[in-house]
User: Which sequence fits this backbone?
């Protein structure tokens, strides 16, 4: 067994998920493929969204995959970093906006 | 990062084609983690791979180049002295006059650095070949005063210019090809436009060749072409006709880069994973003969660099015979995955 939780080489094995449940695995990969097709949003835009979300969910496999995908699509590093900042801003904003709940509770409990 | 010297000048182990082929058959392929190319194409009954109608004659006029690009599969550079002689050129002209191929494709190194380049273009252009391509790295046009009039020369002989430009932005281009390459390339493209290249009604074709600046595969050729067109027009008022997206093959200096950056295995996995049987049907070795600076015949430019001569009784321009050559089996190895990944890759861009 590996002594670490993440091994970059495991990303290549993602497709093997279907081996233990073909029906659900196949449905997932069909869905996944469909999501990233050109649509109302371009595949390029979707790649940047995926990169931002990859950081928010802190998935190292996804970060590797969508950094490479971005390079392949000609997305440059300034665009990639801006996308990551969008993710970071939402994540920190999501933390901070809970401050309102804290303020509400504080006020409610205080005389 | 652009380099200072070729593998050959550095006497690097990878300058030997035999060592490269050995590397490409060991490791993940020997262990059976990935299938050998011949087994992979056998799954769709493409083994042995046979040529179809010959369409393209590709001539390498020499390995000398004014640049030392980090991805170069030719291992070209200023330190390479292999140059096609006039005698070999005469033999090539004889073949060009009688070939059934409709396209003549001159490459290098920088083919313009061959001292007999202009004479050869003048003679070859009289042969009535339908499409006459010169692969120019662009910076050669500005490298020395004697090359400044190349756009006019190309125009005079109705040469179809295919130019390398790794990206429409400076940083990626210069990282792969050397500092200052982007600005010179832009200037050269503007010079080509100024004499009529890629301008409506002139019939003068200017295509760009894109190859990824790292260990990743090219994306959709049409999407890239659109991005290049918009960016080059907006930023530099440059026009071009088509963009060819070419996959970097894991040989020579690109192989060196893959190994040094520890990207080799991932890259090979990516190529194999993207294997497309449809691309095999149209892969360029099925319609091309590649001729080296010293007159030897190969299935493609990559096999030339790996010194894999055609498997035919005819192996040299001196006894060239198209019928006999068309009866050959194409020599393959693991580098061939580079031409069958995704939409496929060839000197004319995607194939599937």
Assistant:
């Amino acid at each position: 067994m590996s002594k670490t939780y993440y091994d970059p080489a495991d990303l290549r094995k993602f497709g093997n998920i279907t081996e233990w449940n073909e029906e659900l695995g196949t449905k997932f990969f069909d869905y996944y493929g469909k999501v990233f097709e050109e649509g109302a949003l371009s595949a390029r835009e979707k790649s940047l969204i995926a990169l931002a979300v990859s950081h928010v969910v802190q998935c190292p496999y996804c970060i590797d995959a969508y950094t490479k995908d971005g390079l392949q699509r000609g997305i440059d590093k300034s665009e990639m970093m801006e996308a990551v900042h969008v993710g970071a801003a939402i994540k920190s904003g999501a933390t901070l906006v809970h401050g309102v709940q804290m303020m509400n509770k504080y006020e409610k409990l205080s005389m | 990062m652009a380099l200072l010297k070729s593998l050959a000048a550095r006497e690097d182990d990878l300058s030997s084609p035999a060592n490269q082929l050995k590397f490409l058959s060991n490791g993940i392929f020997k262990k059976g983690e990935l299938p050998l190319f011949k087994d992979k194409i056998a799954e769709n009954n493409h083994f042995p791979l046979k040529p179809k109608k010959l369409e393209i004659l590709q001539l390498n006029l020499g390995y000398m180049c004014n640049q030392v690009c980090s991805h170069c599969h030719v291992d070209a550079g200023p330190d390479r002295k292999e140059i096609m002689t006039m005698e070999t050129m005469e033999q090539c002209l004889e073949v060009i006059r009688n070939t059934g191929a409709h396209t003549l494709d001159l490459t290098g190194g920088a083919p313009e650095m061959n001292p007999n380049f202009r004479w050869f273009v003048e003679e070859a252009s009289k042969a009535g070949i339908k499409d006459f391509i010169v692969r120019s790295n662009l910076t050669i046009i500005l490298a020395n005063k004697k090359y400044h009039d190349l756009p006019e020369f190309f125009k005079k002989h109705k040469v179809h210019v295919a130019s390398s430009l790794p990206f429409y932005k400076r940083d990626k281009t210069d990282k792969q090809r050397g500092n200052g390459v982007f600005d010179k390339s832009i200037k050269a493209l503007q010079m080509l436009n100024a004499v009529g290249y890629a301008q409506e009604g002139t019939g003068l074709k200017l295509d760009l060749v894109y190859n990824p600046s790292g260990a990743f595969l090219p994306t959709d050729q049409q999407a890239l072409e659109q991005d290049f067109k918009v960016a080059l027009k907006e930023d530099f008022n440059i026009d071009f006709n088509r963009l060819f997206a070419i996959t970097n093959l894991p040989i020579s200096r690109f192989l060196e880069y893959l190994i040094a950056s520890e990207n080799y295995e991932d890259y090979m996995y990516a190529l194999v994973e993207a294997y497309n049987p449809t691309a095999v049907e149209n892969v360029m070795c099925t319609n091309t003969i590649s001729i080296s600076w010293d007159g030897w015949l190969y299935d493609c430019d990559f096999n030339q660099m790996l010194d894999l001569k055609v498997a035919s009784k005819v192996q040299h321009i001196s006894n060239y015979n198209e019928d006999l050559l068309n009866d050959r089996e194409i020599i393959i190895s693991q580098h061939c995955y580079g031409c069958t990944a995704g939409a496929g890759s060839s000197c004319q861009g995607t194939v599937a």
Notes: The first strand of chain B starts at residue 56 and ends at 60.
